[in-house]
Predict the 3D structure of the following.
Amino acid sequence: MTVTWSSGYNIDEAVPFVEWAMKGHHQAQSRSPAGTLTFTQNDMCGGAARGVGWRDPGFIHTAFLKNLWPNMVYMYRMGHMLQNGEYVWSKTYSFKASPYPGQDSLQRVIIFGDMGKGERDGSNAYSNKHPGAINTTDTLIKDLDNYDIVLHIGDMSYANGYISQWDQFLAQMEPISSKVPYMVASGNHERDWPNSGSFYDVDDSGGECGVPAETLFYVPAENRAKFWYSMDYGMFHFCVADTEHDWRIGTEQYAFIEKCLASANRHKQPWLIFVAHRVLGYSSNEWYGLEGSFEEPMGREHLQHLWQKYKVDIAFFGHVHNYERVCPIYQNQCVNNEKSHYSGTVNGTIHIVAGGGGSHLSDFSELDTVWSIHKDHDFGFVKLTAFNQSSLLMEYKKSSDGEVYDSFTITREYKDVLACVHDGCEPVTLAA
Ligand SMILES: [Fe+2]
Ligand SMILES: [Mn+2]
């Protein structure tokens, strides 16, 4: 587990660390050292971030808590040892250690994108750009005991170069991110800036060009400036892509995606999940309809063969601010007529847009798409529950009441993943 926090102390002023122990085992306390990072105004690429929006972020500390016992609850607090030998302490928090990779136990994952922040006093002084953010946050806080990990799949704070808004957003998320692993993907509002290496040459990050997000969030990427990584969580294997860098065939990221998908041992990790910010699969969103692509151009053209070959169960996307569930699909064809329960061989991937975390909603196209099973123009999030290695539940909940408005189940045996399907077969020889 990693613990990240910020302070005003650089490394020559105080020594940052985390003190932690298994709950009820106070005598077996450990201390883990923390690394210290920051960023400066000159690290910003332009726009508000380098000008009127700049604010010194202080110092960002990350500690690695290792050798955790799976599923055990730990207590922890952050400390700084000052030069005069005195200590400064945070409050005490707790978390439950992650399951061992492949471990068969109840595992619950929350997924959403595009949340942003709100003003608790209702002032929304500048504009009410993220009208669902507080509702989503509060609904998740109320339910904290009923999930194990959160994936926020891009467009997190929408600080857009106004750096203090990252503080505001992180304070809003703290009740959640201090208790369960809070994993993120990079979106256009984290990364994009003209002539800065982002795949889209637009100014959506307000000049941040990814620097605050890469520094504030520890993710197990080889290079956090390239925000793609793989993540094991019990029976889940997640491949998190970075849509703001080129993913097409022949790129470094494409090679990573294939390696990540191939590295799931489906006997131990049956639930293979692909995650990305922009919709690389299918969405009936209005602007994708106007483009006629119903996706980000060049998305599935380059990636659908991988999703099929490696039998990805579900692909999640944000960027479009609504909810939509698509049939199990390959090459624009639904491969299964079922709507609420799936079983048998894995012959297509289910695509889900879960971008209704809180930012202003996106409209659906008036054109009917044959592959769309459920659309909701509202704020919400997704919960995946793996009961064991053969049973998965997907639920879509609205932020307003936390109730379930769409769901399906998958029942699976190992042989169903191994079985040969169209464009997803291992070679066989006639030699005996
Ligand atoms: Fe967004
Ligand atoms: Mn976006």
